[in-house]
Amino acid sequence: MKNNFVVIMAGGIGSRFWPVSKSLYPKQFLDLFGTGKSLIQSTYQRFSEIVPVENIFIITHESHLEILKEQLPSVSDNQILAEPIMRNTAPCIAYACHKIKAINPEATIVVSPSDHLILDEKNFNESIIKALDTASEEDRLITLGIRPSRPDTGYGYIQYLDGSAKEEFKKVKTFTEKPSLEIAKTFLQSGDFLWNSGIFIWSAKSIIKALGKYVYELNEIFAEGERHLNADTEKQFIALAYQRCPNISIDFAIMEKADNVYVLPVTFGWSDLGTWSSVYDLAEKDFSGNLSIPSKNVMFYDSKNCMVSVKKEKLVVLQGVDNLIIAESDNVLLIIPRDQEQNLKQILTDVKSKHGSKYL
């Protein structure tokens, strides 16, 4: 157990959940389902049952430090990695893994997003432990792959080599970013594609070796500065180091290139909660397909298939509407048809162009 570590990535801004998720208070800190816990609190609690709490590290943007400490007060300052600027997942993973290696060279590490929903936590825990055990013994870069239930265009896909049926960990053949609907249907029919969960497991030695081989310049930034990690000079070092880091994802930097990538197919009720529709699909709705979270003060009349997210104390009355997303936060109200949610990206671009960052 002492060699097992977790890195929770909490640096995103969740723009597809705008306006409830904003740059100063993004979705990982929100209680989207009205459970009394934010997504990052749920993620932290889930991993605290797998590894020692002192081995859980969280990486986030420095502007979110106050929120993070408020929501997870038991986490020490050395367990919080503050990014001065956003540089995608490869730099933050390189930072975290070098920091953990400096603490424990024999570390095996889970890297996970902070904002996923896991329905079957027992199955999840068993899968993580199985992957940790394998990664500690073999030079493998492991990811968890979700058995697809539909031809979803919002996920990346992993194709694996079938190999031996007894081999639980499948060797990865290709990664494919979000495909078209027709290609996604083909993937589903072939039976050898999985959704990319974005959850990775590897030893500190294996990932740092891969970083050195495939993104040498990025790896050298943190290798040369390893003496500053876990020291009083860490913050100053990171401020300069991140200026030199490329903006690159771990998938593109490592996982698509390395020849020792394996996937463990899993089925534990997973969603990356990437869109309003993903929450709508998972949450319990009334007999007309209406959903209101976290507020229960929403009255529906002759309305169906609507999703409402407003503050708990607000009363909302809907009459004669169908298939809408209605979301409110402070000075923004969004009303958009559920089947046009993909237009949010352009809407946010237009809002920024017209109003700057005031509403973002």
Description:
It catalyses: alpha-D-mannose 1-phosphate + GTP + H(+) = GDP-alpha-D-mannose + diphosphate. Keywords: GTP-binding, Nucleotide-binding, Nucleotidyltransferase, Transferase. Strand 1, helix 1 (39-48) and strand 2 (56-61) form a beta-alpha-beta unit. The two termini are 41 Å apart. The model has no long low-confidence stretch (mean pLDDT 92). The longest helix has 17 residues, at 121-137. Helix 3 crosses helix 6 and helix 3 (89-103) packs parallel to helix 7 (216-224). The chain has 2 domains: 4-271, Spore Coat Polysaccharide Biosynthesis Protein SpsA, Chain A; 276-355, no CATH class. The chain is globular. It is an alpha/beta fold and 360 residues long. The protein has 11 helices and 17 strands. Helix content is 32%, strand content 24%. A 5-stranded mixed β-barrel has the order 6-9-7-8-10. A 4-stranded mixed β-sheet has the order 12-14-16-17, with no helix packed on it. It has a two-stranded antiparallel sheet with strand order 5-11.
